[in-house]
Amino acid sequence: MSDRSAAAIQAEGLVRVFKKGPRAVDGIDLRVEPGEVYGFLGPNGAGKSTTVHMLTTLLPPTEGSARVAGFDIVSEGEQVRGAIGAALQEAALDPFLTGREHMRFQSALHALPRDERRRRGDELLERVGLMEAADRKVGGYSGGMKRRLDLALALVHEPRILFLDEPTTGLDPQSRTALWEEVQRLVTDRGVTVFLTTQYLEEADVLASRIGIIDNGQIVAEGTPKSLKAQIGRPSVEAIPSDADDLGRVSDVLERFGEPVPGTPQGATVRLSGEDATLAAVVRALDAEDLQVEHLELHQPSLSDVFLAKTGRSLEGAGGEVEEEPAEAVPA
Amino acid sequence: MSSVLALQVGTVARRSVLRTMRQPAMVVPALFFPLLLLSINSGALKSATRLPGFPTDNYLTFALGLAFLQGTMFAAMSAGTNVAQDIETGFFNRLSLTPLRRAALLVGQLSGVLVLGLIQASTFLLVGIVAGAGLQAGVLGVPVIVALSLLTTLGFGSLGAFVALRTGSGEAVQGLFPLMFAALFLSSMSLPRNVIEIDWFRTIATWNPVSYMIEGIRSVLIVGWDGEALALGFLASGGLALISLVLASSALRTRMTRT
Fold it and tell me: Residue A197 pairs with which residues in a beta bridge?
């Protein structure tokens, strides 16, 4: 039975093992509060989509349990599906139907009354900026338009919880920003809970109020973007000397202000430590040594640093494992 | 049928019809190739009517039955390919996340194929009669031919849907086509079974249910009302439809793994 005061999404020890495959999801615990945007950040093959497939009832878990909108994902799948909307990794649309036909198709399957179908469809097409293209076949839509239509379709039955599986992958920056704005509007105006998977650090940083970093099927860090960055500590300073022969001396000066950390090979980078370690102090020290630098930059800790610190690799270079095809899955 | 189920079936069927009709590459060959083969066969093989025991002196009338069977096989490809594309593109997951019932999905998808089958049957009959084929049973034979043709379309369409649901692959569905054509060629499509002289061929054609599907339609065109031929035709097509539907339903249950 649904408990509306409970978490929007709660998972305990969620595991998914594929036949002849790895533990795609390996004991995930998470709790997402109503109205929250939870960013699930990780490389390809980390287990993000498998988790979404389990939480949206498309794939039964091998072990563990989860409740979505207060309903059990295994025994109350129908109720879960009634409470959620989902735009999965592929913008799964029919190229031979128009945008408006898609809206009518989806709203009819959700058994909306006839008048409501038309009204709701037009309202959502307007909302995602597709009214002008509503009567064009989807096969001619751009990637951004398809994603926006996908989002509109997920909202037809006014779900309380929205799952967005890598919603902006492959989109140009303009389309990406437009989609972010729409998601933010949904949260602000309608209080929708959003579970968002992404491999883009910026996306998680901009949209998510809380982030879980997943790697090899396990959550390796969780918190608000601010708290995760704070775990990394203080900012770092990177300096590239004007004369490459001065690299050693520049490194010596920088190391007075903190521990060296990996950075560009042409320069030196340190993580600042101590009360007196500021960018101004570094500039004064370099000046005192009569060292010229062509580039000097203060890096605030980013989610990229968090990912690197928690997994030992950068998000851009991680991944490469292909997630198993759910249809081939059998519980181990 | 409950109103929700009826709405779901209607919605899926409407999409299936729209989708099929908007793909000329799917509709045109399904109409054109059976008619092309009909015109070639009725010209090239008309001397076969002089064989002792041949049931008519008009080979066009004899060959027209084959066009219906070929058409149903194209319909099977259409049904299977549409389902496979839905699986490959993830559209199937979209459907799985709605309250859509499995029965509505299958019936809706097959309704679209039946509409294509109806267009085919009407076209073949009209073209055949205009070209000079006989219709011994008269006007009342038309609905019988259409009914038998649609039942066969349902059988082969469900078979296409089964392969698509089982494999999730459009290529696997395409692989059905040569098998179906082999079944067609090893039937009484070109000659009546009593005229086939090669023993092994006649034996296979006798065991091949496709022979009875063709002969059921052919009997209405050539003989008029032949109860046995019609009963065997409906039995063969109905049997295929029943078996294929059971297989497709089972594959759908496995494919639609939502909890």
Answer: A40, A165
Contact A327/B257, CB-based, under 8 Å? yes
C-alpha closest to that of B113 among B159, B67, B145? B159
Choose from A58-72, A175-189, A225-239, A269-283 the range with maximum mean pLDDT.
A58-72
**Is the per-residue pLDDT at B204 higher than 50?**
yes
**Can you give the length of chain B in residues?**
259
Angle at B108 between CA B15 and CA B119, to 5 degrees: 75
Rounded to a whole number, what is the distance in Å from the CA of B241 to chain A's nearest CA? Answer: 26
B-chain residues near A111 (CB < 8 A): 4, 7, 99
Please return the burial class of B249, using the count of CB atoms within 10 Å of its CB with bins 0-12, 13-18 and 19+.
middle
ipTM of this complex: 0.85
Considering CB atoms only, which of A73, A86, A93 is closest to B259? A73
Contacts of B139 (CB under 8 A, 6+ apart): none
Q: Across the interface, which of A92, A110, A329 has its CB nearest the CB of B98?
A: A110
Conformation bin of residue B198: beta by default, left when phi > 0, alpha when psi is -120 to 50 = beta
Q: What are the structure tokens assigned to A274, written together?
A: 């101590």
Residue B137 near residue B144, CB atoms below 8 Å:
yes
Tokens 């709790």 map to which residue?
Answer: A31
CB–CB contact A108 B11 (8 Å): yes
How far is Cα A122 from Cα A255, in angstroms, rounded to an integer? 61
Q: Does B90 contact A88 at a Cβ distance shorter than 8 Å?
A: yes
Distance CA A325, CA A211 (A): 26
Digit-coded pLDDT (tens) for B220-255? 999 999 999 999 999 999 999 999 999 999 999 988
E strand spans, chain A: 9-17, 23-32, 37-41, 63-68, 71-72, 84-87, 161-165, 193-198, 210-215, 218-223, 236-241, 258-260, 268-272, 293-299
Q: Which two tokens stand for residue B2?
A: 């409950």
pLDDT in tens, B176-203: 888 988 999 999 988 899 888 899 999 9
The per-residue pLDDT for range A171-204, each reduced to its tens digit, is 888 888 888 888 898 899 889 999 999 888 888 8
Determine what percent of chain A is predicted with pLDDT higher than 70: 92
pLDDT (mean) for B27-38:
90
Q: At B34, which helix (H) or strand (E)?
A: helix B24-44
Chain-chain contact of A86 with B97 (C-beta, under 8 angstroms): yes
Per-residue pLDDT at A315? 67
Query: How far B87 CA lies from chain A's nearest CA (Å)?
Result: 10
CB contact under 8 A, A58 and B87: no
